[in-house]
Amino acid sequence: MTTILLVEDTKELANLVQTELAANGYQIVTAGDGESALACFESAHPDLIILDWMLPRMDGLEVLRRIRQKSAIPILMLTARREETDRVIGLEVGADDYLTKPFGMRELVARIHAMLRRSELIQSVLTSDRNNQNSVFTCGALQLDPVSFTARLDGNLLELTRTEFNLLSLLARNPGRTFSRNYLLETVWGESYISGDRSVDNAILRLRRKLETVGDSIETVWGIGYRFNHP
């Protein structure tokens, strides 16, 4: 059974979410503060984490940072912050998705289903890589390891979120191929494109900045999407 760690300090909301997820067949472990969340993460070995931003004893961003130091587990952040900059911070630190309060239970369940499907797909790809003994991909000074979700540039570790890593890996492993925003969104995020959605564009901007001099290898194909040209 899939185990979800729910980190939420508002008891009424935590109870509501726990009841809904249990009805959908998930096993739920709960924590009401940041320090308890880290302890539960170590002991329960969850498959996915729902993490509130505002928590006592340690805020959600710090919990997220610490978990990302050792795990690529899917993490959905809950936040009452509606500013785009706040949401971007959460994604840059390592969240896979976010949901702004108040939210509907059907949307929460749908996002969890999508995140778990992406995780299963990624694991199947990694298993294939391990079986082929070809897990590490090297492109000039850039090295990608899909087993550990780590990327290095000139030997230096890049701080990429899992979404950024998957996006970079897809582009770099298919040099010269142009990918539409719709294709990237469906493949990497597992979502259908909606007009005005800037998820792909924002992720590309972050990638270019983090890749520094190699960032120019990700080219914009105007009116279509993006492609990667080897440096």
From TrEMBL:
<dbReference type="InterPro" id="IPR001867">
    <property type="entry name" value="OmpR/PhoB-type_DNA-bd"/>
</dbReference>
<keyword id="KW-0805">Transcription regulation</keyword>
<dbReference type="InterPro" id="IPR016032">
    <property type="entry name" value="Sig_transdc_resp-reg_C-effctor"/>
</dbReference>
<dbReference type="InterPro" id="IPR036388">
    <property type="entry name" value="WH-like_DNA-bd_sf"/>
</dbReference>
<dbReference type="GO" id="GO:0006355">
    <property type="term" value="P:regulation of DNA-templated transcription"/>
</dbReference>
<keyword id="KW-0902">Two-component regulatory system</keyword>
<dbReference type="GO" id="GO:0000976">
    <property type="term" value="F:transcription cis-regulatory region binding"/>
</dbReference>
<keyword id="KW-0238">DNA-binding</keyword>
<feature type="modified residue" description="4-aspartylphosphate">
    <location>
        <position position="52"/>
    </location>
</feature>
<dbReference type="InterPro" id="IPR001789">
    <property type="entry name" value="Sig_transdc_resp-reg_receiver"/>
</dbReference>
<dbReference type="GO" id="GO:0005829">
    <property type="term" value="C:cytosol"/>
</dbReference>
<dbReference type="Pfam" id="PF00486">
    <property type="entry name" value="Trans_reg_C"/>
</dbReference>
<feature type="DNA-binding region" description="OmpR/PhoB-type">
    <location>
        <begin position="134"/>
        <end position="230"/>
    </location>
</feature>
<protein>
    <submittedName>
        <fullName>Transcriptional regulator</fullName>
    </submittedName>
</protein>
<dbReference type="InterPro" id="IPR011006">
    <property type="entry name" value="CheY-like_superfamily"/>
</dbReference>
<dbReference type="GO" id="GO:0032993">
    <property type="term" value="C:protein-DNA complex"/>
</dbReference>
<feature type="domain" description="OmpR/PhoB-type">
    <location>
        <begin position="134"/>
        <end position="230"/>
    </location>
</feature>
<keyword id="KW-0804">Transcription</keyword>
<dbReference type="InterPro" id="IPR039420">
    <property type="entry name" value="WalR-like"/>
</dbReference>
<dbReference type="GO" id="GO:0000156">
    <property type="term" value="F:phosphorelay response regulator activity"/>
</dbReference>
<feature type="domain" description="Response regulatory">
    <location>
        <begin position="3"/>
        <end position="116"/>
    </location>
</feature>
<keyword id="KW-0597">Phosphoprotein</keyword>
<dbReference type="Pfam" id="PF00072">
    <property type="entry name" value="Response_reg"/>
</dbReference>
